[in-house]
Design goal:
The complex is a heterodimer. Chain A is built from one helix and eleven strands. By secondary structure, chain A is α+β, with helices and mostly antiparallel strands. Chain A is globular. Chain A starts with a helix and ends in a 12-residue tail after the last strand. Among the domains of chain B are: 172 residues; 156 residues, no CATH class. Chain B has a two-stranded parallel ribbon with strand order 1-2. The radius of gyration of chain B is 23 Å and the shape is globular. Classes of the chains: A alpha+beta, B mainly alpha.
Chain lengths: 172, 558
């Protein structure tokens, strides 16, 4: 087979580019803790009441001697529970783990402008952990079409200073 | 003598496919224009925001599934007939796949448009990805299944011609147009396995009420088994044009026959096992399989990068034949006054830009930033919406005279059309990409929220909004120009024995340099199936092991 020498050079260059992209992603994974959602747990979407999602909200847990928070969120047509009726309030500079699922249809859970972005699929629990570095508010957008009022589905995360975090709103 | 005089029967089949394709393009394009004005809140008087999703479904299905499939069928009928020098083997069979696809398309369209009738029970506002448990009317799923079955029969028709040709030409190499057709269809057979399992195995029985519950992740995964390869099903026919016809339109010849074949083989191998890259943000699929999909996705850059080289080299050769000189000055010698050439070349430039945003999409932890934002439609309006659609429109200016025996009318309008598309898409898609970085979601009628404002990184929200609305308007004008030129030429173009120069010269590095193993379809098809099994067997087994319909969710009206 005849491959022109310029084309041979171009193909080698292409492989270098592809390797560079893969290395970039792996570097993000390993060195910068930029992970993606994986396999966590399945759940019966018709019986969320019997699980922690039945009483959704922010929970305090102790892990490795540290105080951390867990947030259970149900995405429903057309609201985040919690998130829409009242904001999700979490302290800054603390590990927060979100658990998200849906009892009805597919939704998205996207903290606008950040890389906190997951699908919410009935039957699957999405889990991700983050630390909010600054005190501010974030909008939550449903970014998967979920029905005729999809465009009104929004919520809010309020990050407060650790010292002002009100523990009376935690759920058991 | 041109195509219609040599092969009148095939010409009729190709024209019938083009008519359906262009009607779908007209309706789907109009919906897109209405959406561009609605989303940006420039004008919301046509429909209410609930009906927006019916229009969006129509836009996606009519353009991404119907326009493409029918245009591709017409293009491949032309290419197979011409390169094997045979009319279709059995016209009853040929027309039966055409009518099956058409009946399917009409059923799906009725189900979608039913959503615009108040209180209609016939609805399908499920978008072109139709994720359950949102449920459409059964007619929608059955219609789509008929389109796919028809496309399988179309593929069988071309393989039939090939087998007959092979019996008469045992020692010939597969002609390049037929080769590209057959390999595209082999890929189509591999990827539509997922769609068939999803639609026939799960969604049709479920929409008819034979089963009540459905596990949402399984059909979604089967959809994306099909859903990325379908992108290559659209793109490979554009490549077919860029490899086989664009060099000729540039005044030159294809650079390398063997690289062309290698590129199509790589696409056959890698198009399907990449599907999870649409599911990076899904719970329920392990990171390891997502990583495998990412590696194959980035590898599939390789054939596109090779294409970039081959196509640009072919164009440069053409420009130098026309007297072009220098490192870059030859670009000015390309036929920038030929509508067919300009459309293909501008489509290629847009595809390079779309390729860059595609690399971001492919890189899974970077993808999280833009997953399901308007960045994604910004990306695929460059790829399918320009690289594919503009190439199809442009090559119509060259094919239509061959199929009708009539010269093209309104050449000036035809020349303005691809430039207008390029301009409109530049405005619209750059703004969509940037809005996506700010977190603006895709697939929404009203991307305005009461509790917070988006914070754009480059530019302002107002400027992006106007670029999308104005870009969408220019695209609509370009589409009207295209349809005007096509209808006018078809009905009233000057009849001629040679309405266009349809000669395609031999490649610079011809088939005599191409290893025979590249034509071994069984080998490559088997390898493609193996790669699919590696990617999908285990995750699919995990999803069905606890029951095919479990954990089950109840259907919801769309």
């Amino acid at each position: 087979m005849h491959i022109h020498k310029f084309e041979q050079f171009w193909i080698k260059l292409s492989f270098v580019l592809i390797a560079f992209f893969i290395v970039t992603v792996v570097y993000g994974f390993v060195a910068m803790d930029l992970k993606v959602i994986g396999d966590h747990a399945t759940i019966d979407p018709q019986n969320l009441a019997d699980t922690k999602f039945g009483n959704p909200g922010v929970r305090e847990v102790t892990r490795n001697g540290q105080t951390e928070y867990e947030v259970y969120v149900q995405t429903i047509q057309f609201a985040f529970n919690p998130g829409t009726a009242q904001p999700i309030v979490v302290p800054a500079n603390t590990r927060v783990t979100f658990y998200i699922t849906s009892p009805d249809v597919l939704h998205g859970f996207d903290v606008a402008g950040t890389n906190l972005n997951t699908m919410s699929i009935p039957g699957q629990v999405a889990k991700f952990t983050t630390i909010f570095p600054e005190v501010r508010e974030y909008g939550i957008v449903c970014n998967e079409y979920c029905g005729p009022a999809h465009h009104v589905m929004e919520g809010k995360i309020k990050v407060v200073p650790k010292s002002e975090f009100d523990k009376s709103n935690l759920v058991e | 003598m041109t195509f219609i005089h040599k092969y009148p029967k095939a010409a009729k089949v190709a024209k019938a496919n083009f008519i359906v394709a262009f009607i779908a393009l007209a309706i789907g394009g109009l919906f897109g224009f209405v959406q561009a004005l609605h989303r940006t809140n420039v004008f919301r008087g046509f429909f209410n925001s609930g009906e927006y999703y019916t229009l969006l479904t129509g836009h996606g299905v009519l353009l991404a599934l119907i326009f493409t499939t029918f245009f591709i069928a017409g293009l491949f009928v032309w290419g197979v007939t011409r390169s094997l020098d045979r009319e279709p083997e059995n016209l009853t069979f040929t027309w039966s796949w055409f009518w099956l696809m058409t009946i399917g398309l009409v059923m799906a369209t009725i189900a979608i448009l039913g959503g615009l009738v108040p209180d209609s029970s016939i609805r399908a506002a499920v978008l072109y990805t139709f994720y359950p448990p949102l449920q459409a009317h059964p007619m929608f799923y059955i219609g789509l299944a008929l389109v796919v079955v028809g496309s399988w029969m179309a593929g069988a028709d071309w393989f039939w011609s090939y087998r007959k040709w092979r019996a008469e030409n045992p020692n010939e190499r597969i002609p390049i147009l037929a080769f590209m057709t057959l390999f595209t269809m082999l890929m189509w057979y591999v990827c539509t396995i997922g769609l068939a399992l999803e639609v026939v195995g799960l969604l049709i029985p479920w929409s008819l009420g034979w089963v009540t519950e459905i596990e949402p992740l399984l059909p979604r995964t089967l959809f994306w088994f099909f859903g990325h390869a379908v992108v290559y099903f659209w793109l490979l026919p554009a490549y077919y044009v860029w490899y086989a016809i664009l060099p000729k339109l540039s005044g030159g010849r294809l650079f390398s026959d063997s690289m062309t074949r290698i590129v199509f083989i790589i696409f056959l191998l890698l198009s399907t096992p990449v599907g999870y890259h649409h599911q990076y943000a899904d719970a329920g699929i392990s990171v390891g399989f997502k990583f495998y999909a990412m590696a194959t996705t980035l590898l599939i850059l390789l054939p596109s990068l090779i294409t970039l080289f081959t196509v640009v080299a072919s164009m440069e050769h053409g420009a130098r034949q026309r007297g072009g000189k220098g490192y870059l000055k030859w670009i000015g010698k390309l036929p920038w006054d030929s509508p067919a050439f300009v459309g293909c070349a501008l489509a290629g430039i847009m595809f390079a830009a779309g390729g860059f945003s595609g690399m971001i999409n492919a890189s899974m932890n970077i993808n999280v930033l833009i997953h399901n934002t308007i960045w994604v439609p910004g990306h695929f309006h460059l790829t399918v919406g320009t690289a594919v659609a503009l190439t199809f429109m442009a090559i119509t200016y060259w094919l239509l005279p061959q199929l009708t025996g009539r010269k093209l009318k309104y050449k000036t309008l035809a020349l303005i059309q691809p430039y207008a598309w390029f301009l409109g898409m530049t405005l619209m898609s750059n703004a969509m990409h940037r809005a996506g970085l700010a977190g603006v979601p895709r697939r929404t009628a009203e991307p305005e929220y009461s509790g917070f404002d988006f914070e754009p990184i480059f530019g302002t929200m107002t400027e992006m909004k106007w670029q999308i609305a104005i870009g969408g308007t220019i695209l609509m004008i370009s589409l009207i120009l295209f349809l005007w030129v096509v209808v006018a030429s078809w009905l009233a173009g000057e009849k001629s024995d040679k309405p266009v120069d349809d000669y395609i010269p031999e490649p610079l590095s011809g088939v005599e340099h191409t290893p025979a193993i590249l034509d071994n379809m069984k080998l490559w098809f088997g390898l493609a199936l193996l790669l699919v099994v590696l990617a999908y067997a285990f995750p699919l087994w995990e999803m069905v092991a606890d029951g095919i319909f479990s954990p089950g969710a109840l259907p919801r009206p769309s």
